[in-house]
């Protein structure tokens, strides 16, 4: 039996895919009004057009997840630390699988370290890679990375793979979580480039240089280059920088065009600030990421950002 904490688009999509494949899934929604609507109408407005299958059980009581062995954490990254701090103690003994893509702004930790610091004693895994919630929920073919540095990895890989959701396993948790977190920042920048009308050539350059700086920071923190080149890094970077389905890309589009951004979970904003601080501490150059952080904080105008990026000293690729 699988528990999922966080009934947003992604938690619900995973619950739908796993339940369709025959697993009994318990999905925890903290908002009573949302829970009631989901129970009554068997839909989640955050995942339009998808009917919730029979094997997907809904609850507003976190203690109900006690009957599950594995719990997926599917809330925004900045909510994870507080969620775990107030979770029932037996939840921390489950195998935990973080699905959040980001870096905690207070501790500068990724999901694995946040779960460890909260006292999690079971497996601590990370599920990440190129996948939009709606694609997963509709049963479209998807491939993700499941990273965990513990002997439960292969069992978890089988538990969470379905006929349409193919999980590749990795022991490189740091690499998987940093790829998933940092690509969101580059996706905001890619959106800015397109929104401002700089064109596809500029976006390709941005993605490539963005990947280079993602790799610099990740390897300084112990990630393996092949992880960054895999689904959780390059794969997700490509998806998020090129699809209008991405909230990070869409947020960037609005910033670039000078129009109001839609209300949404945009993980890259906090991650840009966290990664900029990590990079500064380690003496790593991350010009695109730090520019996104400054733009998000209204510390610089778009014109100034472009001038600064383009007037950096010429260097070897
Ligand atoms: N959507 C996607 O396509 C994908 C998302 N992800 C990642 O999944 C994570 C969640 O994103 P997504 O589901 O899309 O975001 P949504 O904005 O759709 O939903 C976030 C959900 O988390 C819930 N939540 C927030 N804080 C808590 C808490 N303390 N306890 C329980 N639930 C909480 C929210 O509840 P409430 O409404 O009550 O605030 C909401 O239901 C992000 O890190 C994202 O990067 C990864 C891959 C794909
Ligand atoms: O992580 C995602 C796709 O892999 C979802 O991206 P957004 O959060 O930008 O929508």
UniProtKB/TrEMBL annotation:
Name of the protein in its database record: Glycerol-3-phosphate dehydrogenase [NAD(P)+]
Q: Where found, per UniProt?
A: Cytoplasm
Q: Which family does it belong to?
A: Belongs to the NAD-dependent glycerol-3-phosphate dehydrogenase family.
Its pathway is: Membrane lipid metabolism; glycerophospholipid metabolism
Q: Binding positions for sn-glycerol 3-phosphate?
A: 101, 129, 131, 183, 236, 246-248
Functional summary from the UniProt entry = Catalyzes the reduction of the glycolytic intermediate dihydroxyacetone phosphate (DHAP) to sn-glycerol 3-phosphate (G3P), the key precursor for phospholipid synthesis.
Q: Binding residues for NADPH, per the UniProt record? A: 10, 30, 101, 133, 247, 267
Q: Which species?
A: Pseudogemmobacter faecipullorum
Q: Determine the domain of life of the protein's source.
A: Bacteria
E.C. code: 1.1.1.94
Residues forming the Glycerol-3-phosphate dehydrogenase NAD-dependent C-terminal domain are 172-306
């Amino acid at each position: 039996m699988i528990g999922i904490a966080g009934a947003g688009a992604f938690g619900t999509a995973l619950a739908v895919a796993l339940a369709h494949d025959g697993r009994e899934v318990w999905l925890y929604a903290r908002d009573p009004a949302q829970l009631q609507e989901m129970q009554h109408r068997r839909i989640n407005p955050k995942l339009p057009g998808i009917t919730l299958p029979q094997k997907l059980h809904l609850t507003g009581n976190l203690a109900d997840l006690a009957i599950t062995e594995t719990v997926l954490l599917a809330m925004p990254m900045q909510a994870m630390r507080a969620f775990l701090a107030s979770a029932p103690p037996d939840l921390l003994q489950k195998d935990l699988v973080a699905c959040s893509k980001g870096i905690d702004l207070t501790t500068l930790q990724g999901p694995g370290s946040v779960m460890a610091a909260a006292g999690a004693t079971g497996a601590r895994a990370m599920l990440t890679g190129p996948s939009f919630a709606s694609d997963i929920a509709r049963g479209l073919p998807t491939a993700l990375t499941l990273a965990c540095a513990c002997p439960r990895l292969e069992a978890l890989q089988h538990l969470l793979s379905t006929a349409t959701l193919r999980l590749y396993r990795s022991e490189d948790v740091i690499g998987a979580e940093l790829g998933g977190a940092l690509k969101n920042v580059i996706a905001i920048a890619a959106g800015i480039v397109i929104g401002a009308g700089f064109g596809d050539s500029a976006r390709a350059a941005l993605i490539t240089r963005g990947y280079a700086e993602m790799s610099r920071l990740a390897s300084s923190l112990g990630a393996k280059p092949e992880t960054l080149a895999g689904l959780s890094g390059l794969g997700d970077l490509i998806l998020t920088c090129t699809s209008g389905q991405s909230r990070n890309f869409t947020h960037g589009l609005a910033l670039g065009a000078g129009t109001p951004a839609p209300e949404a979970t945009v993980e890259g904003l906090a991650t840009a600030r966290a990664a900029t601080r990590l990079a500064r501490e380690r003496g790593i150059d991350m010009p695109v990421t730090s520019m996104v952080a400054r733009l998000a904080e209204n510390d610089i105008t778009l014109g100034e950002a472009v001038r600064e990026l383009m007037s950096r000293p010429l260097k070897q690729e």
